[in-house]
Amino acid sequence: MIASKFLTKTKFDSYEDFLRNYYLQYPDNFNFATDVVDAYAQKEPERRALVWCDDNGGERIFTFKGICDISRRTAAYIKKLGIKKGDRVMLLLKRRWEYWPTVVALHRIGAIAIPASFQLKAKDISYRVNAANVKLIIAADDDFIINQVEIARPDCPCLEKTALIRKRRDGWVEFSRGVENTKEEFVVDETLKFDDHMLIYFTSGTDGYPKMVVHSYTYPLGHITTAGYWQCVVDGGLHFTGVDSGWA
Protein backbone atom coordinates (compact mmCIF):
# COMPACT_ATOMS: atom_id res chain seq x y z
CA MET A 1 0.00 0.00 0.00
CA ILE A 2 1.47 3.34 -1.12
CA ALA A 3 0.29 5.15 2.03
CA SER A 4 2.62 3.12 4.25
CA LYS A 5 5.72 4.75 2.77
CA PHE A 6 4.58 8.08 4.22
CA LEU A 7 4.29 6.72 7.78
CA THR A 8 7.06 5.87 10.23
CA LYS A 9 4.79 3.22 11.76
CA THR A 10 1.58 1.59 10.52
CA LYS A 11 0.49 -0.75 13.34
CA PHE A 12 -0.49 0.50 16.79
CA ASP A 13 -1.39 -1.39 19.96
CA SER A 14 -3.53 1.32 21.51
CA TYR A 15 -4.74 4.87 21.18
CA GLU A 16 -1.86 5.98 23.40
CA ASP A 17 0.61 4.17 21.12
CA PHE A 18 -0.93 5.94 18.11
CA LEU A 19 -0.82 9.31 19.86
CA ARG A 20 2.87 8.93 20.74
CA ASN A 21 4.16 7.28 17.59
CA TYR A 22 2.08 8.38 14.60
CA TYR A 23 4.32 10.48 12.35
CA LEU A 24 4.28 11.37 8.69
CA GLN A 25 7.38 11.27 6.51
CA TYR A 26 7.50 12.77 3.03
CA PRO A 27 9.94 14.41 0.60
CA ASP A 28 10.29 18.18 0.28
CA ASN A 29 8.62 18.00 -3.13
CA PHE A 30 5.71 15.76 -2.12
CA ASN A 31 2.90 15.96 -4.65
CA PHE A 32 -0.20 13.74 -4.69
CA ALA A 33 -0.10 13.63 -8.50
CA THR A 34 3.38 12.13 -8.74
CA ASP A 35 3.91 10.43 -5.37
CA VAL A 36 0.52 8.69 -5.26
CA VAL A 37 -1.24 8.67 -8.66
CA ASP A 38 1.89 8.18 -10.77
CA ALA A 39 3.40 5.78 -8.23
CA TYR A 40 0.36 3.51 -8.45
CA ALA A 41 0.28 3.90 -12.24
CA GLN A 42 3.83 2.57 -12.37
CA LYS A 43 3.53 -0.11 -9.69
CA GLU A 44 -0.02 -1.37 -10.35
CA PRO A 45 -1.27 0.28 -13.57
CA GLU A 46 -4.51 -1.73 -13.72
CA ARG A 47 -5.56 -1.03 -10.13
CA ARG A 48 -8.95 0.71 -9.94
CA ALA A 49 -8.69 4.37 -9.02
CA LEU A 50 -12.23 5.59 -9.70
CA VAL A 51 -15.61 3.98 -10.34
CA TRP A 52 -18.10 6.57 -11.54
CA CYS A 53 -21.78 6.40 -12.50
CA ASP A 54 -24.66 8.81 -13.00
CA ASP A 55 -28.46 8.77 -12.79
CA ASN A 56 -28.78 8.12 -16.53
CA GLY A 57 -26.99 4.78 -16.48
CA GLY A 58 -23.61 6.16 -17.50
CA GLU A 59 -20.59 4.43 -16.02
CA ARG A 60 -16.83 4.86 -16.24
CA ILE A 61 -14.12 2.86 -14.51
CA PHE A 62 -10.65 4.39 -14.39
CA THR A 63 -7.39 2.71 -13.47
CA PHE A 64 -4.51 4.60 -11.92
CA LYS A 65 -2.77 4.43 -15.29
CA GLY A 66 -5.86 5.98 -16.86
CA ILE A 67 -6.04 8.83 -14.33
CA CYS A 68 -2.29 9.36 -14.73
CA ASP A 69 -2.50 9.65 -18.52
CA ILE A 70 -5.63 11.83 -18.63
CA SER A 71 -4.38 14.17 -15.91
CA ARG A 72 -1.04 14.63 -17.70
CA ARG A 73 -2.80 15.56 -20.95
CA THR A 74 -5.23 17.76 -19.03
CA ALA A 75 -2.29 19.53 -17.39
CA ALA A 76 -0.68 20.14 -20.78
CA TYR A 77 -3.94 21.58 -22.11
CA ILE A 78 -4.55 23.81 -19.09
CA LYS A 79 -1.04 25.20 -19.54
CA LYS A 80 -2.01 26.02 -23.15
CA LEU A 81 -4.84 28.10 -21.70
CA GLY A 82 -2.21 30.23 -19.96
CA ILE A 83 -2.43 28.75 -16.47
CA LYS A 84 0.82 28.40 -14.51
CA LYS A 85 2.08 27.73 -11.00
CA GLY A 86 0.27 29.84 -8.41
CA ASP A 87 -2.71 30.72 -10.62
CA ARG A 88 -6.17 30.08 -9.16
CA VAL A 89 -8.67 27.89 -11.01
CA MET A 90 -12.29 27.50 -9.89
CA LEU A 91 -13.91 24.11 -10.46
CA LEU A 92 -17.70 24.00 -10.78
CA LEU A 93 -17.84 20.37 -11.86
CA LYS A 94 -20.51 18.87 -9.58
CA ARG A 95 -19.89 15.11 -9.51
CA ARG A 96 -18.75 14.77 -13.11
CA TRP A 97 -15.87 12.30 -13.46
CA GLU A 98 -13.78 15.04 -15.03
CA TYR A 99 -13.28 16.64 -11.62
CA TRP A 100 -10.74 14.02 -10.48
CA PRO A 101 -8.25 14.06 -13.39
CA THR A 102 -8.64 17.85 -13.60
CA VAL A 103 -7.74 18.48 -9.96
CA VAL A 104 -4.76 16.11 -10.29
CA ALA A 105 -3.73 18.05 -13.41
CA LEU A 106 -3.76 21.28 -11.41
CA HIS A 107 -1.51 19.64 -8.80
CA ARG A 108 0.98 18.86 -11.57
CA ILE A 109 1.07 22.46 -12.76
CA GLY A 110 1.11 23.99 -9.30
CA ALA A 111 -2.09 25.90 -10.02
CA ILE A 112 -4.38 26.27 -7.02
CA ALA A 113 -7.70 24.45 -7.28
CA ILE A 114 -10.81 26.10 -5.84
CA PRO A 115 -13.67 23.56 -5.78
CA ALA A 116 -17.01 25.37 -5.64
CA SER A 117 -20.59 24.28 -5.09
CA PHE A 118 -23.04 24.00 -7.98
CA GLN A 119 -25.52 25.92 -5.79
CA LEU A 120 -23.60 29.19 -6.08
CA LYS A 121 -25.44 32.07 -7.69
CA ALA A 122 -23.85 34.83 -9.75
CA LYS A 123 -23.09 37.10 -6.78
CA ASP A 124 -21.48 34.17 -4.93
CA ILE A 125 -19.34 33.31 -7.93
CA SER A 126 -18.20 36.88 -8.57
CA TYR A 127 -17.33 37.37 -4.88
CA ARG A 128 -15.16 34.24 -4.82
CA VAL A 129 -13.55 34.91 -8.19
CA ASN A 130 -12.53 38.43 -7.21
CA ALA A 131 -11.50 37.53 -3.66
CA ALA A 132 -9.22 34.73 -4.88
CA ASN A 133 -8.11 36.38 -8.14
CA VAL A 134 -9.36 33.44 -10.21
CA LYS A 135 -8.06 33.31 -13.80
CA LEU A 136 -10.01 30.31 -15.11
CA ILE A 137 -13.33 28.64 -14.36
CA ILE A 138 -13.90 25.06 -15.49
CA ALA A 139 -17.61 24.26 -15.33
CA ALA A 140 -19.93 21.31 -15.78
CA ASP A 141 -22.43 21.08 -18.62
CA ASP A 142 -25.22 22.28 -16.37
CA ASP A 143 -27.62 25.02 -17.49
CA PHE A 144 -27.90 26.62 -14.03
CA ILE A 145 -24.11 26.80 -13.57
CA ILE A 146 -23.59 28.14 -17.09
CA ASN A 147 -26.22 30.84 -16.61
CA GLN A 148 -24.84 31.98 -13.25
CA VAL A 149 -21.26 32.15 -14.55
CA GLU A 150 -22.36 34.19 -17.56
CA ILE A 151 -24.21 36.64 -15.32
CA ALA A 152 -21.17 36.93 -13.02
CA ARG A 153 -18.52 37.21 -15.74
CA PRO A 154 -18.81 40.98 -16.44
CA ASP A 155 -18.17 41.67 -12.75
CA CYS A 156 -14.96 39.60 -12.67
CA PRO A 157 -12.10 41.61 -14.26
CA CYS A 158 -9.46 39.05 -13.20
CA LEU A 159 -11.28 36.16 -14.92
CA GLU A 160 -9.53 35.48 -18.23
CA LYS A 161 -11.33 32.36 -19.48
CA THR A 162 -14.32 30.15 -18.77
CA ALA A 163 -14.22 26.53 -19.93
CA LEU A 164 -17.04 24.04 -20.31
CA ILE A 165 -16.91 20.25 -20.27
CA ARG A 166 -18.90 18.03 -22.69
CA LYS A 167 -20.60 20.97 -24.37
CA ARG A 168 -20.04 23.63 -27.00
CA ARG A 169 -21.16 27.20 -26.31
CA ASP A 170 -20.23 30.63 -27.62
CA GLY A 171 -17.85 32.48 -25.34
CA TRP A 172 -16.62 29.33 -23.62
CA VAL A 173 -13.52 27.20 -24.13
CA GLU A 174 -14.51 23.69 -25.24
CA PHE A 175 -12.56 21.94 -22.49
CA SER A 176 -13.31 18.26 -23.14
CA ARG A 177 -12.45 18.49 -26.83
CA GLY A 178 -9.30 20.43 -26.00
CA VAL A 179 -8.09 17.69 -23.67
CA GLU A 180 -8.99 14.96 -26.17
CA ASN A 181 -7.00 16.69 -28.92
CA THR A 182 -3.93 17.24 -26.74
CA LYS A 183 -1.23 14.67 -27.43
CA GLU A 184 1.58 16.00 -25.27
CA GLU A 185 1.79 15.32 -21.54
CA PHE A 186 2.93 17.43 -18.59
CA VAL A 187 4.25 15.50 -15.60
CA VAL A 188 4.96 18.10 -12.89
CA ASP A 189 6.45 21.52 -12.19
CA GLU A 190 9.81 20.59 -10.68
CA THR A 191 9.93 23.75 -8.53
CA LEU A 192 6.93 22.72 -6.39
CA LYS A 193 7.47 22.13 -2.67
CA PHE A 194 5.34 20.45 -0.03
CA ASP A 195 4.42 23.77 1.60
CA ASP A 196 3.25 25.49 -1.60
CA HIS A 197 -0.46 26.30 -1.80
CA MET A 198 -2.45 23.51 -3.47
CA LEU A 199 -6.10 24.05 -2.63
CA ILE A 200 -8.43 26.81 -1.49
CA TYR A 201 -11.84 26.20 0.04
CA PHE A 202 -14.30 28.95 0.89
CA THR A 203 -16.15 28.69 4.18
CA SER A 204 -19.95 28.68 4.17
CA GLY A 205 -20.24 32.36 5.07
CA THR A 206 -22.66 31.68 7.90
CA ASP A 207 -21.18 34.59 9.86
CA GLY A 208 -20.20 37.34 7.38
CA TYR A 209 -18.68 36.79 3.95
CA PRO A 210 -17.12 33.41 3.11
CA LYS A 211 -13.44 33.21 3.97
CA MET A 212 -10.65 31.44 2.14
CA VAL A 213 -9.00 28.41 3.76
CA VAL A 214 -5.71 27.44 2.12
CA HIS A 215 -4.18 23.95 2.13
CA SER A 216 -0.64 22.98 1.12
CA TYR A 217 0.52 19.91 -0.81
CA THR A 218 0.66 17.92 2.43
CA TYR A 219 -3.14 18.16 2.74
CA PRO A 220 -3.81 14.68 1.24
CA LEU A 221 -1.42 13.10 3.75
CA GLY A 222 -3.66 14.24 6.58
CA HIS A 223 -6.41 12.06 5.17
CA ILE A 224 -4.46 8.85 5.67
CA THR A 225 -5.93 8.86 9.18
CA THR A 226 -9.38 9.81 7.82
CA ALA A 227 -9.37 6.84 5.44
CA GLY A 228 -7.84 4.33 7.81
CA TYR A 229 -9.43 5.16 11.13
CA TRP A 230 -12.72 6.90 10.34
CA GLN A 231 -13.89 5.65 6.94
CA CYS A 232 -12.20 2.26 7.54
CA VAL A 233 -11.32 1.78 3.88
CA VAL A 234 -9.60 -1.46 2.90
CA ASP A 235 -7.02 -2.19 0.24
CA GLY A 236 -8.81 -2.92 -3.05
CA GLY A 237 -12.20 -1.84 -1.70
CA LEU A 238 -14.54 0.92 -2.84
CA HIS A 239 -15.34 4.10 -0.93
CA PHE A 240 -18.66 5.69 -1.92
CA THR A 241 -18.63 9.47 -2.27
CA GLY A 242 -22.05 11.03 -2.75
CA VAL A 243 -21.24 14.64 -2.00
CA ASP A 244 -20.72 17.43 -4.54
CA SER A 245 -17.05 17.98 -5.44
CA GLY A 246 -17.33 21.61 -4.37
CA TRP A 247 -18.42 20.83 -0.82
CA ALA A 248 -15.59 21.34 1.69
Summarize the structure.
This protein has helices at 15-21, 32-43, 64-80, 99-109, 122-132, 143-152, 175-180, 219-230, and strands at 48-53, 59-63, 88-92, 112-115, 134-139, 161-164, 173-174, 197-202, 212-216. By secondary structure, the chain is α/β, with parallel strands linked by helices.
The number of helical elements comes to 8
Rg from Cα = 19 Å
Kindly state the number of beta strands: 9
- In terms of structural class, how would the helical and strand content be classed? alpha/beta
Indicate the multimeric state: single chain
Beta-strand portion reads 15-25%
Q: Rough shape?
A: globular
Global mean pLDDT = 95
CATH architecture: 3-Layer(aba) Sandwich
Topology summary:
Blueprint: H1 15-21, H2 32-43, E1 48-53, E2 59-63, H3 64-80, E3 88-92, H4 99-109, E4 112-115, H5 122-132, E5 134-139, H6 143-152, E6 161-164, E7 173-174, H7 175-180, E8 197-202, E9 212-216, H8 219-230
Parallel strand pairs: 3-4, 3-5, 5-6, 6-7
Antiparallel strand pairs: 1-2, 8-9
Helix pairs in contact: 2-3, 2-4, 3-4, 5-6
What would your notes on this structure say?
- With 248 residues, this protein is α/β, with parallel strands linked by helices.
- The chain has one domain (27-230): ANL, N-terminal domain (Rossmann fold), CATH 3.40.50.12780.
- Helices cover 35% and strands 17% of the residues.
- It has eight helices and nine strands.
- The chain has helices spanning 15-21, 32-43, 64-80, 99-109, 122-132, 143-152, 175-180, 219-230, and strands at 48-53, 59-63, 88-92, 112-115, 134-139, 161-164, 173-174, 197-202, 212-216.
- It has a five-stranded parallel β-sheet, with helices on both faces. It has a two-stranded antiparallel ribbon with strand order 1-2. A two-stranded antiparallel sheet has the order 8-9.
- α2 packs across α4 (99-109) and α3 (64-80) packs across α4.
- The longest helix is centred in the N-terminal third of the chain and has 17 residues, at 64-80.
- The protein starts with 14 loop residues before the first helix and ends in an 18-residue tail after the last helix.
